[in-house]
Write a structure and sequence with these properties.
With 363 residues, the protein is mainly β. The protein has helices at residues 261-267, 308-313; strands at 2-4, 15-20, 27-32, 38-43, 47-53, 59-66, 71-77, 82-87, 91-97, 104-111, 117-123, 128-133, 137-142, 148-153, 165-171, 176-181, 185-190, 198-202, 208-214, 219-224, 228-233, 275-276, 283-284, 291-295, 300-306, 323-327, 332-338, 343-348, 353-357. It is elongated.
Length: 363
């Protein structure tokens, strides 16, 4: 079921340690078991599996449990070994795993939602189980009594917290929230600084599926449907992107835009299409913004449109990358980062779980 891959000499890229195979459908979520060479996974094939590394070097299921409905999400608390599993039928099922991870004992079921559970989180300090679902409900239950404590109806199907957001993670030291989105972007929200700033990070060519934060090195790991693993250096002074300015004519050459009929008539010129410089935010025509450049400190690791004057002003130092890009070779659905070992788990639409040594790039 799992083929061991021998580690290669240390390079500045993730090292693939293991492929864990055997699921019949997409693995929607999986986590690395702390202090163990093990993985817990839940799949669309209705199975919960605990994979432990054997003496042969392969990962084999020590637990194989079939659920009544496809497993959409999970939350595992290592301290209590409580495993909360969200199902496609709206139920949340809880189990306690044995110390040797060879047995799972049912605890209780919560009839939390009317349709698929999209997120579940067990909060030990409050003894709460939080969840969101495709029924547009955000709900919380008491984990001791199983009683529903409250709920809130969202305006759209909840995925993480709201419609376009596909992933969230939190930096407790800097008090910064990171959100991944279906529009391929990651946004850094300065909540703790109370400045109201939002820094946009562009490094994916498909929707961002999952985020993880390495607090000890201040690096953000984002993974997407494009198979990319992007490691962002957040220990730099980033700049907020400017607001796009409105204008009826190019703010560089004063040529009218195509909706400015009066100026077109007065100047006897055909109107031009409007663009915006990503560096200064000015409204410009294509002729005055013929160059492209990366602006990593603004989050643009890929080249974007800039006006000609800004292009000349950007230095080579300002173009220095603040992120590294790596190909996982599968469409990533979910990631989990074990900071103590520097291991990253990725699960993909190819039904495969991959374990990576990230120490070459997260250090």
């Amino acid at each position: 079921m799992a083929a061991e891959i021998q580690p290669q000499p240390l390079t500045r890229k993730p090292i693939l340690l293991q492929r864990v195979e055997g699921s019949q459908e997409v693995v929607n979520m999986a986590v690395i078991v702390p202090k163990e060479e093990g993985v817990i996974s839940v799949s669309e094939d209705r199975t919960v599996r605990v994979w432990l590394k054997r003496d042969s070097g392969q990962y084999w299921p020590s637990i194989y449990h079939a659920m009544p409905s496809p497993c959409s999400c999970m939350s595992f608390n290592p301290e209590t070994r409580r495993l909360s599993i969200g199902l496609d039928n709206g139920t949340i099922s809880e189990f306690i795993l044995s110390e040797d991870y060879n047995k799972m004992t049912p605890v209780k079921n919560y009839q939390a939602h009317q349709s698929r559970v999209t997120m579940v989180l067990f909060v030990l300090e409050l003894e709460w189980v939080l969840s969101t679902g495709q029924d547009k409900q955000f709900a919380w239950h008491c984990s001791e009594s199983g009683q529903r404590l409250g709920g809130y109806r969202t305006s759209a199907v909840a995925s993480g917290l709201h419609g376009g957001v596909t992933a969230l993670c939190w930096d407790p030291v800097q008090r910064v929230l990171f959100s991944g989105s279906s529009d391929h972007s990651v946004i850094m929200w300065d909540i703790g600084g109370r400045k109201g700033t939002a820094i946009e990070l562009q490094g994916h060519n498909d929707k961002v599926q999952s985020l993880s934060y390495a607090q000890h090195t201040r690096q953000l790991i984002s993974c997407g449907g494009d198979g990319g693993i992007v490691v962002w250096n957040m220990d730099v002074e980033r700049q907020e992107t400017p607001e796009w300015l409105d204008s009826d004519s190019c703010q560089k050459c004063d040529q009218p835009f195509f909706w400015n009929f009066k100026q077109m008539w007065d100047s006897k010129k055909i109107g031009l299409r409007q663009h915006h410089c990503r560096k200064c935010g000015k409204a410009v025509c294509g002729k005055c913004s013929s160059k492209r450049s990366s602006i990593p400190l603004m989050g643009f690791e890929f080249e974007v449109r800039v006006c000609d004057s800004c292009h000349e002003a950007i230095t080579d130092e300002e173009r220095a990358p603040t992120a590294t890009f790596h190909d996982s070779k599968h469409n990533i659905v979910h990631v989990h980062f074990d900071a103590t070992r520097g291991w990253l788990l990725t699960s993909g639409t190819d039904k495969v779980i991959k374990l990576w040594d990230m120490t070459p790039v997260v250090s």
